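queue> pop job 88
queue> type: inverse folding (structure -> sequence)
queue> payload:
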């Protein structure tokens, strides 16, 4: 039971001690820092909420960031946190974690939301519907890239050499590479049938959290062919967004991209690489496994208005309407997709 000395409150802004509390726990996701939820407010106009738990001495003992999205297609939702792979409650005890989540459920009910979702990397206590169709893939990194190259094996190295025959150039940096990253990313998202984020979303990430970010661009014939946007924290690098032009994949530029990404993060002292979430047995899941990554189960805890908590939550993207919309989007001219995408993407349940 949660003791009476602990008080929970919902705030519009994270308190001054929010980020120090998160940073003091090295295993905590970087996306629990207050700036990531505020990003959704400032870029997309979404409401953001910050649930804080404080003890009798007013010390912060638990946090939970939430973002509200409203969509005609997907309804009214609270998520911790959308647009990124990880979120949920952060506290030092299971009892306090559960109390934060229950407080969020009460907030969702009070606001009239259709559902509430916590993007956790571990199973949490309480009565929740749980999505288990997603995993993240992790690769432990050696101290130097030569050791990793030997570890990856001759077959994978030969795939990378296909791209190297075209003498690609590699650029690693920050905001100066944003336009080139975004050019490749827009094309890839259209080809996948998915509305693209607006450029200002990535620009704001770099402006607010640039010290935690790294961009890698692979050029082919002087033009960007593949690109990645990385988030680095506590010796762990994550690749939330990666893209490769379709005409460059047969030449192995997608392989070359990840090769250079791994080189870059090892040189920056990272000891673990997070390939990002995938649906089990999907094409991207198999692509990531070939790099020696191991799967880690993700648990997306959900509350849905009117649904039995004992049921397993279904993926939000399932359904005939979604499949039809994806097929149509793939056929849009690139200019049209790039114009419409930033208008649609902020309300999608990513």
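queue> result:
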């Amino acid at each position: 039971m949660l003791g009476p000395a602990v008080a929970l409150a919902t705030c519009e802004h994270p308190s001054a001690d929010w980020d120090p509390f998160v940073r003091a726990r090295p295993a905590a996701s970087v996306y629990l820092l207050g700036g990531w939820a505020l990003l959704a407010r400032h870029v997309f106009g979404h409401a953001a909420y910050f649930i804080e738990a404080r003890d009798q001495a007013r010390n912060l003992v638990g946090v939970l960031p939430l973002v509200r999205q409203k969509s005609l297609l997907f309804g009214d939702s609270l998520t911790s946190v959308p647009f990124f792979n990880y979120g949920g409650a952060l506290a030092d005890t299971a009892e306090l974690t559960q109390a934060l989540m229950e407080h969020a459920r009460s907030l969702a009910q009070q606001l009239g939301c259709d559902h509430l979702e916590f993007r956790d990397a571990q199973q949490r206590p309480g009565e929740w519907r749980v999505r288990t169709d997603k995993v993240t893939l992790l690769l432990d990194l050696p101290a130097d890239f030569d050791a990793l190259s030997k570890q990856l094996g001759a077959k994978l190295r030969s795939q990378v050499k296909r791209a190297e025959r075209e003498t690609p150039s590699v650029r690693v940096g920050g905001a100066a590479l944003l336009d080139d990253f975004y050019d490749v990313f827009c094309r890839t998202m259209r080809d996948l049938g998915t509305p693209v984020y607006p450029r200002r979303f990535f620009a704001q990430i770099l402006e607010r959290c640039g010290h935690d970010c790294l961009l890698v661009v692979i050029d082919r014939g002087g033009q960007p062919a593949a690109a990645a946007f990385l988030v680095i924290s506590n010796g762990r690098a994550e690749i939330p967004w990666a893209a490769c032009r379709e005409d460059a994949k047969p030449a192995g530029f997608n392989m070359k991209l990840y090769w250079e990404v791994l080189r870059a993060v090892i040189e920056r002292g990272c000891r673990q690489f997070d390939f990002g979430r995938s649906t089990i047995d999907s094409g991207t899941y198999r692509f990531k496994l070939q790099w020696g990554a191991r799967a880690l189960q993700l648990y997306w805890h959900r509350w849905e208005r009117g649904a039995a908590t004992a049921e397993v939550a279904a993926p939000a993207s399932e359904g005939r309407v979604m499949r039809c919309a994806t097929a149509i989007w793939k056929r849009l001219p690139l200019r049209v997709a790039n114009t419409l995408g930033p208008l649609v993407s902020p309300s999608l349940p990513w």
